[in-house]
Amino acid sequence: xxxxxxxxxxxxxxxxxxxxxxxxxxxxxxxxxxxxxxxxxxxxxxxxxxxxxxxxxxxxxxxxxxxxxxxxxxxxxxxxxxxxxxxxxxxxxxxxxxxxxxxxxxxxxxxxxxxxxxxxxxxxxxxxxxxxxxxxxxxxxxxxxxxxxxxxxxxxxxxxxxxxxxxxxxxxxxxxxxxx
Length: 180
Fold this sequence. Notes:
The protein has seven helices and eight strands. By secondary structure, the chain is an alpha/beta fold.
């Protein structure tokens, strides 16, 4: 049902799409979706060409992927939007929050990449409020530090379904409702 739902959401004015992987992103492009499509899972270096060619928005958490995307985008004379995944405690994917500031500053030096978002994921928003609040604080501290350094990143997101319903915040400006 991805084609029907994607086209309906597009028609209804959804401004941004998120998918799990590159194949889903390519499928939405082939269905005619022109709006930004974020790949939530990290992709591999060899996917850089497809990401640029299909104008997808990759999640990056390695300098190797950033360099590969930058090189191919430069070759094609394109600029590609990226989001950086920050690990605030889940331990699955992303740049560890204590290293994220330096990582983001390095990625920002790549001329063909534009950091349009940073995000984390709340794995226990429905079961561990204390842990989730700590995650939110880590993200907030990072955003504040980036802002003070002059690097304003437009899209900040962490809010899955439970995060959206249970953790109001003034820094998160995109939501990723799934189960809801």
